[in-house]
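Thread: quick sanity check before group meeting

JM: Hey all, I'm pulling together slides for Thursday and realized we never actually wrote out the predicted structure for the chain we discussed last week. Dropping the sequence here so it's in one place. If anyone has concerns about the input, flag it before I start.
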Amino acid sequence: MNYQESRRLEPGKLVVASHNPGKLREIAELLAPYGIEPVSAADLGLPEPAETGTTFVANAELKALLASDLSGLPALADDSGLCVEALGGEPGIFSARWAGESKDFGLAMQLVEEHLGRVDPEAGRGAWFACALAVAWPDGHLESFEGRVDGKLVWPPRGDHGFGYDPMFVANGREETFGEMDQAEKHAISHRADAFGKLVAALF
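JM (edit): ok, ran it. Output follows.
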């Protein structure tokens, strides 16, 4: 979290600065108990900024600031991705880009597996999902929160729930992939839930 005085997030409209339907669905479900009315950036016709940051936090913050500035409403942005230990943390902040213009995460998962095949098999299949959430207000006030869930990668992918790299990720202590898991159960343990718990503690 940014080291400044926290500001409460009041009930009402909040722009979710994402054009990703899967992320929008997860964030809307997480916000549901707090009287927040999520409005997607896509529905407002807001552009997707170039993600020029070098960290998840930096990218989340620039997306939240732009959406809040253009809409005149508080905005919440997420930047998240899969980080693979044997690949030096890749794809990391480039997780969506590995899926290409068509956002084909079947292709992205195949690329991860191919890259793993080129490294030392002894390096293992440890990985983690990282998430940064940033909330911006129209006056420029900004707060950010980070979450993480550790696990391992499996191949071939399993399950058709979730989105992104979920079908190849098994969280520590679990047997199902995020793609097989009941989504309410996933939301309770995910990287996004971890970051969201910190956001709730600070802003509600």
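AS: nice. The helical segments are 21-31, 56-71, 105-117, 183-189, 191-203. Residues 56-71 form the longest helix (16 residues).
JM: adding both to the slides.
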